[in-house]
UniProtKB/TrEMBL annotation:
Source superkingdom: Eukaryota
SAM domain: residues covered: 26-92
InterPro entries reported in the protein's UniProt record: Aveugle-like_SAM_dom (IPR039144), SAM (IPR001660), SAM/pointed_sf (IPR013761), SAM_domain-containing_protein (IPR052268)
Listed name of the protein: SAM domain-containing protein
Protein source organism: Cryptolaemus montrouzieri
Length: 116
């Protein structure tokens, strides 16, 4: 008699999505990974600048063009390219927050009338 074993290939808890960590909780190392992935062309030039200034995810979302200048990114094209990537990251973060709010509001819409 063959005994069936449970499927262990999918160990994800039900109801949980494989969602990336919130940018607000990123460490300096996480920002370095993001910089390398999304601004790889400029990574070797500016990674140390971001590290020296201890740019975390929370800081990254608050950076503006003047901040990039203070980080030592003086080349306009480099600054514009990095700025575009930061704006994309902000947009993605805002969309995730909006979805969370919508999900919470949807869950709060259901009221158990049997209690009243």
């Amino acid at each position: 008699m063959v005994e069936e074993t449970p499927n262990t290939t999918n160990n994800k808890p039900k109801g949980k999505t494989n969602r990336p960590r919130a940018v607000y909780s990123w460490t300096v190392a996480d920002v370095q990974k993001w910089l390398e992935r999304h601004c790889g062309e400029y990574y070797d030039h500016y990674a140390s600048n971001f590290a020296v200034h201890e740019v975390t995810g929370r800081t990254l979302l608050r950076i503006n063009d003047n901040s990039l200048l203070r980080l030592g990114i003086t080349d306009v094209q480099h600054r514009d390219a990095i700025w575009r990537q930061i704006l994309k990251l902000r947009l993605k973060t805002d969309i995730m927050e909006i979805r969370d709010i919508q999900k919470r509001n949807t869950n709060n819409m259901f009221y158990d009338y049997s209690i009243a």
